[in-house]
Amino acid sequence: MIGKLIGIFSSDIGIDLGTANTLVYVRDHGIVLREPSVVAVKAGTNLVLAVGDDAKRMLGRTPGNIVAIRPLRDGVIADYEVTEAMLRHFIRKVHNRRNWVRPRLIIAVPSGITELEKRAVNESAAAAGAREVHLIEEAMAAAIGVGLPVQEAAANMIVDIGGGTTEIAIISLSGLVYSRSVRVAGDELDESIMNYMRRAYSLMIGERTAEEIKIRMGSAYPQPKETSVEVKGRDLIAGLPRTIKVTSTEIREALMEPLRIIIESIRVTLERCPPELAADLVDRGIVLVGGGALLKGIDQLISEETGLPVHVADDPLSAVAEGTGKLLNELDLLKKVAHPGRQ
């Protein structure tokens, strides 16, 4: 009886637990939350002061007694206790701060996650109040989210360029035929911009500034109209604030190293694809999702390097969360594609 009551009063949730952003899908309500995976805590303690948008605004700007933490690195939990606090905050927020709600959770995780890392996700979700946890590969969730026919005996290829990892998978008959999880993604693109500024201009810039430059003028392929932008930072030699002007051509050059690693991983995945399925991909091509799919010209670059058609999903940022949401309503498919979590 108690179990039935819990089921009635709990809204099942799908979570895209990303390195950069966390998206929460509530059954029958769609995506209700999308916030940065950042937590601000009091230094030397686990006392949470802010989560999500409020905490991200503090990144690089906090006084000594406040630390802004990204508890996930490279797609996996780097700080167990802070992740638990963040999950609890998001679950309570979507349920209007009701403590007694104990939802069923579907959480998308990188395909390269270890058993130890899976356990950390499970335990964090359980400690945050979930009554049942199912883990699903991000690539599978993304493929379901964009409406690929994953249950058919035909190849579907998805590339999910997130914040911490790039997930590459070929899917057929509700399973991953071959997948790769590369710990090179949006964070490395930002880091490449920071390194370029340091190397070319002796200018130190922060993560947020690098991300803003990437979003505003980053590209993977020559653009019809190249642009330039003023960048503010700290001069490494004089130690004083300084402003310089950089071009979109320079930024593209700065991004090439991590982009080459992603393209090489896509090539390796294609080389491992069985011939029958490879034939399907000639027509169906590759679907791009994740924040990295928004980088200008990345579809052109991948298409040129692989010779396959490349399509950017209509809403690449929501694909994984939408996939977890669809699985909340398709429990038969969930049984086929999910890893057993905490029941």
3D structure, described in words:
The structure is a single chain. With 343 residues, this protein is α+β, with helices and mostly antiparallel strands. It folds into three domains: 2-141 and 319-340, Nucleotidyltransferase, domain 5, CATH 3.30.420.40; 153-184 and 258-312, Nucleotidyltransferase, domain 5; 187-254, Actin, Chain A, domain 4 (Alpha-Beta Complex). 40% of the residues lie in helices and 27% in strands. It is built from twelve helices and 19 strands. It has helices at 2-9, 53-56, 80-94, 115-127, 138-145, 186-201, 207-217, 248-271, 275-284, 298-306, 319-329, 331-337; strands spanning 13-17, 21-26, 30-36, 39-42, 48-51, 66-69, 72-73, 76-77, 104-109, 132-137, 156-161, 166-172, 175-182, 203-204, 228-235, 241-247, 286-289, 310-312, 339-340. It has a six-stranded mixed sheet, with helices on both faces. Strands 13-12-11-17-18 form a five-stranded mixed sheet, sandwiched between helices. A hairpin with a 3-residue loop joins β2 (21-26) and β3. α3 packs across α4 (115-127), α5 (138-145) packs across α11 and α6 (186-201) crosses α7 (207-217). The longest helix has 24 residues, at 248-271. It is flat, with a radius of gyration of 21 Å. The model is unreliable at 1-9 (pLDDT under 50).
Give a short summary of the structure.
The chain is α+β, with helices and mostly antiparallel strands and 343 residues long. It has helices at 2-9, 53-56, 80-94, 115-127, 138-145, 186-201, 207-217, 248-271, 275-284, 298-306, 319-329, 331-337; strands at 13-17, 21-26, 30-36, 39-42, 48-51, 66-69, 72-73, 76-77, 104-109, 132-137, 156-161, 166-172, 175-182, 203-204, 228-235, 241-247, 286-289, 310-312, 339-340.
